[in-house]
Amino acid sequence: MTHVFVYGTLKKGQPNNYRMFDLSNGKAEFLASAHTTQKYPLVIAGKYNIPFLLNLPGQGHQVQGEIYKVDDQMLDFLDDFESCPEMYQRTLVKLEVEEWVGEEKLVSGGITEAFVYSTKTYQPEWLSLPCYVNYDSYGDHGLEYEIRESRERRS
Length: 155
Prior knowledge:
It contains 2 helices and 7 strands. The protein is mostly beta strands. The chain has a 5-stranded mixed β-barrel with strand order 1-5-2-6-7. The chain has a two-stranded antiparallel sheet with strand order 3-4.
């Protein structure tokens, strides 16, 4: 089992969260809410308003998200879903736990590691976009994520 940190559309209440619990994709268990120990730019970019965590440690904000424990099948699904390694790269990140609910007990405020899908492949103008602490597709920014199914219907 592998720990994965999600910060965008796969979080609870976001458009792709259901994919984490679709057993045909594999198994996932929500463990904790957490934030990165380092700052990273989290931007919303592209014509589909996709959240991207730019792999530029030290810039942006400490990003909030969720830690999941996933099996190998779900990890393979996530690699494919996140177009890894072309669009996103899966790297380890240090996280500070805000609230741990999983079986593997870790004290709130404790430090752990998990894989995150971040990118070194981005357009230069993305560096001038607003950075977010906590992504919400339905937030005040007005940049609602366009789900894949609606993109495919338009094609």
